[in-house]
Amino acid sequence: MTGIILSGGKSVRMGVNKALIKIEGTSIINRTQILFKKLFDEIIIVTNEKALFGNLDAKIYSDLVPERGALGGLYTGLFFSSYACSFCVACDMPFLRKSVIEYLISKRSDCDVVVPRTKDGLQPLHAIYSKNCLEPIKKAIEQEKYKIIDFYPMVKVKIIEEDEFYALDPMRESFINVNTPEELLLIIKGRHNS
Q1: Is 67 exposed, middle or buried, given 0-12, 13-18 or 19+ CB atoms closer than 10 A?
Q2: Which has the closest alpha carbon to 78: 172, 153, 151?
Q3: Where is 106: in which H helix or E strand?
Q4: Pick from 61, 50, 75: which is nearest to 129 by CA?
């Protein structure tokens, strides 16, 4: 399986590239890459700023479908992946849990998508996708639908409910993403107080 990190966002609210924000001394993307090396044989970073990530041990590709957000990034990652399935995350998720990812992998069977659902809804940027998703993603983009979940009706989706993996991540830290400097401060403060 391939681990895909999507780092194509504009980071407008943060003011700097979110992937490079340091948490506990290490950039978020570096934290993700270190974790992915324990889980996957191949790591792909999809970005339009290749120069920023040249120091990471990963294959780096630019969006094949520019300006289509995470959906275009997912398409690019799956297209270049050497394996039938990939686990895909956003570059701004600093507290991914190996145990949660392994649990999703264990539930893969013959589905095209394995996606967790928390009380906040589906988590399409912490999910497994097969190469069977490539054509449906292309169709969604042609129909000008750019949310990742827009192509779900065209493929076999397995939803993993929160109560199944709650014990592995009771604080739901796996799904935290950092959008603004204020959020980042709150997260760091919260972690030190817990």
Answers
A1: exposed
A2: 151
A3: helix 98-106
A4: 75
- Given CA atoms 65, 19, 89, 147 in this order, what sign does their dihedral have? negative
pLDDT in the model for residue 193: 61
* Number of domain units in the chain: 1
CATH label of the domain that carries residue 32: 3.90.550.10
Domain boundaries, position 9:
2-193
CA distances from 177 to 2, 155, 187 (A): 21, 26, 10
Closest CA to 5 of 88, 129, 86, 62: 88
What are the pLDDT digits (tens) for 1-20? 999 999 975 554 455 678 88
Q: In whole angstroms, what separates CA 185 from the centre of its chain? A: 22
pLDDT of 194 strictly over 60: no
Alpha helices in 121-170 (DSSP H): 134-142, 162-165
pLDDT tens for 111-151 read 999 999 999 999 999 999 999 999 999 999 999 999 999 99
Reference 88, options 165, 194, 3, 24; nearest CA is 3
Q: What is the pLDDT of residues 17-47, one digit of tens each?
A: 788 888 888 889 999 999 999 999 999 999 9
How many angstroms separate the CA atoms of 59 and 40, rounded?
13
102: enclosing H helix or E strand: helix 98-106
Q: Which residues pair with 111 in a beta bridge?
A: none
Q: pTM for this structure?
A: 0.92
